[in-house]
Design goal:
The protein is α/β, with parallel strands linked by helices and 373 residues long. It folds into two domains: 147 residues, 3-Layer(bba) Sandwich (FAD/NAD(P)-binding domain), CATH 3.50.50.60; 118 residues, 3-Layer(bba) Sandwich (FAD/NAD(P)-binding domain), CATH 3.50.50. The protein has ten helices and 20 strands. The structure holds flavin-adenine dinucleotide.
Amino acid sequence: MKRLLLIGAGHAHAQVLKDWARAPLPGVQLSIVSPHALAPYSGMVPGWLAGHYSFNEICIRFDALAAAAGARLVLDELVGLDAERQQVQLRSGAALDYDWLSLNVGSTLTPPAVAGARVLSLRPLGALRLAWHETLAELAANASDQPLTVTAIGGGAAGVEALLAVCHRLRALQPTRAMHGGLVTRSTELLPGLAPGAVRQLQRALARSGLSVQLGTEFDDAVARSSDLLLWATGAQAHGWQAGSGLAVSAAGFIRIDAGLRSVSHPQVFAVGDCAEWANPLPKAGVYAVRMGPVLARNLRAALGAGSATDYEPQHRFLALLATADRRAVASWGRWSLEGAWVWRWKDHIDRSFLRRFDIEAAAASQSLEDPA
Ligand SMILES: Cc1cc2nc3c(=O)[nH]c(=O)nc-3n(C[C@H](O)[C@H](O)[C@H](O)COP(=O)(O)OP(=O)(O)OC[C@H]3O[C@@H](n4cnc5c(N)ncnc54)[C@H](O)[C@@H]3O)c2cc1C
């Protein structure tokens, strides 16, 4: 019996499980390790922060997917990997050996602790649920008429969308409380990589919501002291254990992979999405993890002796749809941009359709989980 071990409930592994449910490979024991049975879909996270969706609505159910695939779901977290011994260590103290390993564990952030302010880290997404609910509960418990200041650190899509969404939600919850919001980024450019028109539309959305933008500004004590809530949305970082795993990693600690999505140093290890890095690094965006899914599923089968492997070809550009929290959205494609309520409805349709692809097995279990959102 060959052991195929998937680590992380990322966007690509959802597709591997779905593929396996359609056609399991005999003689292969499939296991997946994830700290949570529900994995949020990144594209809908801002809509959930804004209060437009419940948490369950934005999640892929890995318990149901694993059951449909005949895979063992281990609710645990990898804390160490020994690529030479082909073994992973889990937080519970257990160790798992593998013949083939696939990593889809996303990225993380290391925000500072700030006295007097709550810090909400936008990555990893799995930990955001609890942190956001604790933030909402704390604000509800300490109802005050003092002004509230929310600051996003980071001028990419996550910082802009999260700031708009969080301020929208907090204003709805405490309509009489004065709220100040702003975004601080060390970059001299807001939303690098988006069409110029889309950047202007998002700047207008921030201004409509009374939110300021400070470009070329470092996060420092002064920013920290003036904030009650910090949204930490700086660039994606690699998980610390990756550098000590024995796998070849980039200078920033991301796992170096080839065009077949395999580790360049350990061919029995695959890595995809945010945790991986090509020779030409791709942006850390969910669209890449999603597009890698079918290639990963095929190449894992090929590694196990079924069919032939193929190369992943990244798209040169992708459609970015950014929510502005007022049930409007901005679309950016190359140099083109569009904005409006209909763009939000279009985005909502695309996102819900994506999730529905993984929902066929979920109906039976969906009643049993609590939904605190
Ligand atoms: C607010 C926000 C909005 C975003 N919006 C978009 C968007 O609209 N479009 C877009 O393309 N990108 C978006 N992104 C970026 C996107 O979130 C990431 O690029 C994407 O989630 C990466 O997908 P992934 O499959 O690599 O990892 P993830 O989706 O992060 O999944 C990784 C999984 O691995 C699990 N995991 C992590 N560590 C371990 C471990 N040690 N052991 C076991 N399991 C582990 C996690 O719990 C998680 O389930 C957004 C990001 C943020 C923060």
